[in-house]
Amino acid sequence: MPDPLLRLTEFSAAEARRALDSREIAAVELAEAHLQRIDHFGGELGVYLHVMRETALAQAAAADRRLAAGDALPLTGIPIALKDVLCTIDAPTTAGSRILEGFRPPYDATVVRRLREQGAVFLGKANTDEFAMGSSNENSAFKPVRNPWRTDRVPGGSSGGPAAAVAAGLAVVSLGSDTGGSIRQPAGFCGVVGLKPTYGRVSRLGLMAFASSLDQIGPFARTVEDAAITLQAIAGHDPQDSTSSREAVPDYRSALTGEISGMKIGVADEYTVEGMEPGVADAVNRAIERLRSLGAELVTVNLPHTEYALPTYYITAPAEASANLARYDGVKYGLAVEAPTLRETYERTRGEGFGAEVKRRIMLGTYALSSGYYDAYYVKAQKVRTLIKRDFDEAWSKVDAIVAPTSPTVAFPLGARTDDPYQMYLADVFTIPANMAGIPGVAIPCGFSDGLPVSLQILGPAFAEATILRIGDAYERSETWAARRPNLEHALAASQD
Length: 497
Ligand code: GLN
Hints:
about 500 residues, alpha/beta, 11 strands, about 40% helix, binds glutamine
């Protein structure tokens, strides 16, 4: 007998839409199945920082009324997880930090508001590295997240919670943020689809800022189609975010034709590094060959400044973070450690409220911005950033998209890199260039190595989300990876041996 609850938590958003519209299932039933599964597995996996049970059930009941009235939209009644850097008026938003423990924002992030207007169901606030700084979710001040495929492994980061939620059937889709790879890399480690849109495609209003010139919000999903549906709901100009683009939002789903013959797909030598696992290289090479057999033409491109992306990112991102995080001073938000003077209040609040990685970034960033070093570090990094962008611009004159691995390794063991920040930073070596250039990238499951998911990254020109989703969807249709799900009972039992 198939477990009926399991079936309800296996639906893609598109499948759930059909089942809801045909009244085969109710939104309340779908929400309850997810909440029950969260009760059962959520704690051990560490996926949620806050479960929004009451909100979810009220939204699901409202979705059922909307369905009865015949005005359902694509995400009406669909259970969603939100990374806890997205402001929600009816739930705490902590950015994974003690400094914001218990903080309740006075407004919704624009993406949250848009999903609410669609009638989506919010299951909860998903775990994250503190202020989205990290590649393993181990910098969360509250608890780590375990990889649903093997619970002694990290889920990737910083959006470890949203990625693991979708992989484990604890949400149908989720939203994360990607500053240097934090959607694509955890999507890769958890075997789901993760899309970082073009800088400016999605409003950042109400996203707790890490590095403002790099941050973008995007979806996690079990299929490319679901990623397209979710992007459709959140993309578009926001008058309250001056960096959001006025570029028209195309119909992403209609781009998923399954047809890629004649497309030119770039392959770059720069996307092989020392320390790349053979199992990852093999799976990615097979996926690239598959794209060729689907009719794409493979073209070699050169991206000579790729090796400078990681060092320039670790100047730019900490510099912007040091400015953005100055607002957490014990006066305006969250934690306040009282002290005899205002200055000591600042020092003690920030000393106790921020974790080690956040402090490391604030120190690095403050140094890079200080007088005398500003030109040598920050300005220099911006110049190199232009060169990285130019490499891509050059490539787009020859190809429609570029393919590469998402990460050089599969998910590594919990604790393996926590004492070595440089090793941790290397997990994003293939994802950071897209952030530096402002272009979109999607991570697509493309096989397994050692029982852990491997991921193919597809990069495209600015605002070419439809192109990269189309390639990803064509690949997904030609394979069976998207149908494979981790067996949680098995993974959790194995971790107890
Ligand atoms: N891992 C990278 C960092 O620590 C990227 C983080 C992100 O994309 N939010 O900064």
